[in-house]
Amino acid sequence: MQEEVQNKTVTLAINTSKLTVKELKQALEKFLAYQRNYKNGKAQTKDVVHRGKQTVKQLAAQNQGLTNIEITDKNIKTFDRVARKYGVDYAVKKDRSVDPPKYLVFFKAKDTDTLTAAFKDYTKKSVKAKERKDSVLDKLSKAKQTIKELPTKVKHKELER
Fold first, then answer.
1. pTM above 0.85?
2. How far is residue 82's CA from residue 3's CA, in Å, rounded to a whole number?
3. Is the preceding peptide bond at 100 cis, omega within 30 degrees of 0?
4. What is the per-residue pLDDT across 73-95, written as a single tens digit (0 to 9) for each?
5. Which of 29, 87, 118, 125 counts the highest number of beta carbons within 10 A?
6. How far apart are CA 2 and CA 39, in angstroms?
7. d(CA 161, CA 146)
8. What is 56-132's CATH number, 3.40.50, 3.30.70, 1.10.3470, 3.10.28?
9. What's the chain's Rg over C-alpha atoms?
10. What are the phi and psi torsion angles at 87 (to 5°)?
11. Is 31 exposed, middle or buried (0-12, 13-18, 19+ CB in 10 A)?
């Protein structure tokens, strides 16, 4: 796996439209320096900056202060969509000690204004979902019940001769 990453890195560094001798020399020097550091156990990797949904540990590692909000709603997926829409970095932790479980949403302290707007949109969507009309299947089952409750006509046919 690591060899594939190294090969792709070298390929990416060397893959240019017009490759000069100077660029090839620089690419090989960088590759050899990386190889030397990697063999010594000092491989340099850049810190990956996570965006969107993350773990609490990844969010805390960004050293920007954390705040949290409780959500008791079961439908946390709608919050995920809204948070992605607003570009909020957040982490969701489920608290199972309470019945029904509640969710703690951790986010960066600097994202407070953005998160406020995201929560307004989230609450708007959750209220709208509750007001949503009945589905077609629900309407069909109600219609079946009303038909069953209607009195039936009794037909008496008598033949007279």
1. no
2. 39
3. yes
4. 666 777 788 888 888 888 888 88
5. 118
6. 12
7. 40
8. 3.30.70
9. 31
10. 70, 35
11. middle
